[in-house]
Structures are given as C-alpha cells and as structure tokens.
Amino acid sequence: MCDIPTRELDALQRHSSMLFALLNESTDSIYFKDHLCRFVMVSRTKAEHLGLPFDQIVGKTDFDFLPQDVAQRAFEDDEMVIRTGQKIELEEQITRPDNSIVWNSVKKAPWRNADDEIIGMFGITRDITVRKTYEQHILDMLSIATHDIRSPLASMGMTIKLLMRGSFGPIDESVRATLEDLYDRTLRLERIVADYLGIAAGQNVRMPSKETLDLREDVIDPVLHEFADLIEKNNITIDNRLKSIPSHSVLIKANRVWLMIVYRTLIGNAVKYGGKGCTISFGREDHGDKYVFNVWDSGAGVAPDKREKIFEKFESTASTGLGLPISRDLIEKHGGKLWYEHTARGHPNFKFSIPK
Length: 356
Description:
By secondary structure, the protein is an alpha+beta fold. It has 3 domains: 17-127, PAS domain (Beta-Lactamase), CATH 3.30.450; 129-206, Helix Hairpins (Orthogonal Bundle); 209-356, Histidine kinase-like ATPase, C-terminal domain (Heat Shock Protein 90, 2-Layer Sandwich). 45% of the residues lie in helices and 22% in strands. The chain contains 9 helices and 12 strands. It has helices at 6-25, 44-50, 68-84, 129-164, 173-203, 215-226, 228-233, 256-274, 323-333; strands spanning 29-34, 39-42, 88-95, 101-112, 118-127, 211-214, 237-239, 251-254, 279-286, 290-297, 338-342, 348-355. The strands form 3 sheets. Strands 2-1-5-4-3 form a 5-stranded antiparallel sheet, sandwiched between helices. Helix 4 runs antiparallel to helix 5 and helix 6 packs across helix 8 (256-274). The chain is elongated.
C-alpha cells in the first residue's frame, strides 16, 4: 500500500470537506456526470428538486427524471460540452418532476482529470424565477408607459405641423424654422418610444390577443404616415403596383401592435438604408394556409456574411440593434417566419409569413 504524506492527506481531506459543504449547503443545483451523461454526484438541492435520495439518482440520466424533450435538450448540451470542451451558459424555462414551471440559469463545463483529460461534465443550475418575474413586471410597466406616451407625442407632432402650415395664423420664417426643429425632435422621440415599446413587446413571452385586421388600413398606412415626412424629405417613392395590398383585400388574425412593430422596423430600415430617391414596395402572396408579405427597397443589398447576423441582437451599430431580432421573434410567436432574400438585381427583400 502506498502511504500518502500527512500534509497531502490533510489537504485532500480539507478539499473533500469543502466540496461536501458546497454540495450540502448551496441553494444551487450542482451535479457531476460521467462521459455517458450519467449522474455521479449531485448537491442536496438537486436531489430535492428531483424528489429522490442520492442513491436513486447516481448512475441514472436526465431521461429517468425529466420529460423526453427537456431531457433530450439537456443531453445534447451535455454531450457537446464533453465532446468539444466548450462551456455553455443559458437561461431556460423547464417543468420539474412535480409539474412546477421555473426559470433556470444554467452553466455547464467539462470535468477533467489530473491529466487534463475530459472524463465528463459538471453543471450549476440556479433558480431565477423570481428575477424573471420582476423583469417581466418591469417590461410590462415599460410597455404601458411607452404606449401611453406615444399618443401625446403624436398629438404634439400634429399640432406643431398645423402651426407650421399656418392653421392658427401666419408665422414668420424664424418661428417656422424653430417649429420645424421641434417637429423633427418630436418625430425622433416618437421613434425612440416605438423602439422601447418593441423591446418590451419582444421580451414578453406571452402572445397577446389576436384580432381581425385589415392589413393595409390598420397596419401599413399608419406606419407609412409615421414616416411620411422622411419619405417626402428624401424623395422616396412608395410603389404599390407589384403584388400590392389594397384596402379590404387582406384580412388576417394577428396582434395589431406587434405587426406595426414589424412593419415599422422593415419600412424604417428601407427608408434609412435605401438612400435618397430610392423606391420602396410592399406586397403579399397567398400560399393557401398562410400569407407571405414582403418589404423591398431599391437600395444596396446586405452582404452575404451579414444576412443572418442582422437578426442577432445588438448586431447593428447604427440603431438599438433590436429591430430585426424582435420582429423575427414577434412573427415566430404568430406562428410564422421572417427572413431575408437577396434579389437577382442585388436589392434587399425582407419577407415574413403569417398563418391565415
């Protein structure tokens, strides 16, 4: 038998004691798995969440405790960590064995031996349900506040525009210049409020109620009205001829606020990146069980290496970087898809589908 020096034995016992304290006292779920993704050690909190003693957990996998789809996702993540040696950090909503629904922050990393060989993985899961609840309350308040602010801002803008037109009496040029500056600032504020309304809506996991909408009258025309001054100022043409959407032609079941956010993003980008004198068109195609809508402009297309990245949060440096990611999320929550197509002549064409 090989004797272990007293100092090394003391260090080993001390480290074991620290690990035992961590596993026994931590409120996080901590676990170690071997290369076959079988549990070899779990914390007291993990055992409590599974509702089983330690000896009935060790040697088993997530498939023995969790719903099939949840266990499959966990297995794929664990296997990737073991195979690649890369860490994973994510937030996910899961249903526990007792049917309670919780939000978890999950961190997974490779478990290595003394020779730096990967022999499994370990994970730390923290219950963040309370935090998520508070975040949702904040987002709900942000949504309500921005929604309530938009109407007064729009009224201010209309009043300033009437003043500029002389509806309340003649004005001199210096006053007109001041009013034009105020009007531009009001429009910028409206768009900022709209952006934050979109952020709040995009983070809301609940699908709000749908309503029957006339797409042209209830969604597209109001959004075009918001951009009317920029369209006129930049000499932009709105071409309605190709697969156009006349009034009363497309009635869909959708959430009006969410669809306005989508069209505001797509038309706003077309105005912004299409350039002065560009043409913007929007249309629809009937695909039986769904409609496919598009917003096209005559500006330069998106570079090949950016065509998927533009749907990632904060990719853009010229805006909040949230417009397209939020729009895709809102369309997906409607049961559809949003994507980019590069036309034969090199112009950008954004398309999305909505179930009938």
